[in-house]
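Assemble and predict.
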Amino acid sequence: MLSEVVGHAKAKEKLLKAFSSERLAHGYIFYGPEGCGKVFLAREIIKYINCTSRGVDSCGVCPTCKGLSEKNHPDLAVIEPVRAVIKIEQVRAAKALMGLKAAQCEYRAVLINGADRMNGEASDALLKLLEEPVAGTLIILVASNIHAIRETIRSRAQRIDFNGLSREDTVRVLKANGIEGNRLEFLARSAEGCPGRAVNFTQEDLFPLREEAFRFAAAIGKTGVFFTTKELAKKYGKFKEEEIEEETGDAEAPAPEEKTTNSQKTLYVRNHLNDMLVSIFRDVLLVNSGRAAEIVNVDKNAVIKELSGVYSAQAAAGILGGLNKIKGLLKNSINYDLSAGNIILRGGK
Amino acid sequence: MAYLVLARKYRPQTFDEVVGQEHITRTLKNALESKRIAHAYLFSGQRGTGKTSVARILSKALNCTESKDGNPCNKCDSCAEIMEGNSPDVIEIDGASTTGIDNIRELIENSRFMPVKNKVKVYIIDEVHRISKNAFDALLKTLEEPSEHVYFMFATTEITAVPLTIGSRCQKFTFRKLSTQEIVAALAAILNKEDIKVEQKVLNLIARNSDGALRDAESILDQLISFSGGNITLKQAEELLETVNRNTILSFAASLIEGRTEDALRQIDEASKTGFDEFLFTRHLSSYFRDLLVVKVTARPDGLLDILGEDELVVLKDQAGKISKTKILNIIRVMIQLLEDLKFSSYKRVILESAAVKICGADELLDLNELLSRVDAIPSGPSAARDEKKSLRAEAAPVKTQAPAVSLKDEDLANAVISISDIEEVGNLSDSGSDSLAIVRKNWNVFVEAVREKKKMAGSVLLSAAPADLSGGVLKLRVKDDYSKASLESQEIQAVLKEAFKSIFKKEVKITVEMVKGAVAEAGLPRPASSTKDASVDPVVDAANKLFGGRVLRKEEHGKL
């Protein structure tokens, strides 16, 4: 139900106004940071416009509402990246579905989650559908990087911008997800208005890895000790498909049932470690710029304070620039341990 | 009937309705009138400029029974059918999803049959650049000599992806971007038909944000209408377009200029609470600094600026007084890098914050000229210097993180370089004999330095040369590689060498160069300490040294710290 959507009042208002004034466009791009609730709102809107006993909100009990709440519904095509890419076959399948008459609903909908991950072919194959779909079609593209969506697509859809939630709203969502205690404040702050990230952080249980990041950040300035992500990967490496960009090429390769490889584990660990280091040094930057109240790692206040004595705001800014750069290079199998260590060591001097 | 977005509702139906592509519509109309229609057309251009629309209009005009001035009537059966997309003889194909050779084979096969009910058969292939290479090739023969009743029209945004062999068989038309005025006029016409009144300013704003694509403009307008319920204000438009609040930009820029790090970070925080796009924010910011630069360097900036009103010009002029040109340039350089980084970064906000800290902190070190004038201003008393030192040292540390902190330019140095004062007394050079050679050798560094003053490159090459002989008015130089020989023998450098030689040794000589493999006979040459003046004597270095209380690094230490 729409009332379950926390925050995003503006986006909701825009869509509802368009719907009530019968000016609902056939294509929208929901653009905003990952994990802030775009897909959730998209699904609720699709339910709302199809609900058979609709009031100010969808009823939540009619067959359509119930049907759409479940994962499989003949009138809703959901496309998501497979191995980080959306391919033309997926778009074709959705188009075929859109050519049919709606089974139950007033609107047939396509929800493309990760529209910024469409490859060129898939994106172009969508153009004609997005320009002139049959009446009663709603296409929602969800993306966190607008620049990765082609302009030809952008020009055919209306853009709805999403912002991160307020801290209070984030806390509300996190509490609803059963997150409590001293982790709550840290997670709420680190989520930057995107509770999805915090929930993910908890589900993946990244806290032990975070400890390692802090240990490393604190130690390197004193002892020059580097870490070995390969060792860490053995302990903490979980595999999440999203994170791994596969070499595209032979699309027809048999679906791999194989175990997570070591390099995938390492990549996973490095991705997260880098995020954590960035969060640590951003805190240092904040503390040394007179904004200590805003730091993210509130539960690690002591360590952050200690680090702030070692690294000036300028040094932290330099380190952050370096960490940003290697984040983009992670997939190119760089020597992460050395690079990260080097960046931080240099910054400290 | 379900709602149609404006871009579809007002899709042009005659050539005269197409906005801003007169060069194409006029040609096509004339072709129709004079019955000189090509059998294949290739329309290219950026999105939202009318390619598909023109293809459809042309296919209507070809079949229309009552066309006037080349325009289709839009009333006859044929026109009506085509507009509804039901015509059996106008076949529109999505080139992006039917890409294979089999689709094209089928098309070729079908194209042989006569049209079902219309005069001609038209194949419109949209997004044609996605057709596979084999499919394109299969099309070649048909495209070159199709049956008389068949016409092909291709539309694409990526003309470069269409094979040349296809292109050469078609008449090509390139659609251009629409101007702001054209878009405004088109929007006004739509609003007129929709019976909605909107301020001119709003239309300008929409047009400026749509990058010359009419569909983008219509889409924005659509959103505005549905959001505002028909009563559109500039404020709503700005909100929708997320034109970053101008005041936020102004105050953030002021924080950067005045080096108030804390304020800058707070402003980012506040802006992100109300929602903003880091990329857009930075783009607006960089265009602000660009305006600032224009105000700084031009006497009459009118017309060069991208501002909304006079009051902003006042602010700009005020700010321009507070900041040096070099610093603006440096800020712009950071901004450009930032824009690049922001596009694909996972830490957008963090790198925006780091950039702000860098700009604020690197403040004092950015402008060499300012620095030098500061050096002059320092009183000689040790206590005053120490105070200055203290306050500056805090900012001295960041130089390293700021990549291009100080770049010494030639003209900056020119004023500072010491003139050659330590020339030893040059004896009279006799015409021959080893004595004169010895004198030349002794003063070789002075000579090299004099040459370097005139021409840097020649001085560098000369470092690897050694005087081997001086007799009969001929100075013989010895070098060890082809490159040095060739450069020293070039006319330009020869002239420099001769002149320098004359000015120092008061004697005109010819200079010849010989190449010797292996080491140049050093012949007791006093090698200059890296030829340039000793770093500690350089007044710039010296001044910096005094100012910051540093020391000159030994060569082995370079890059270690």
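Chain B has a mean pLDDT of 80.
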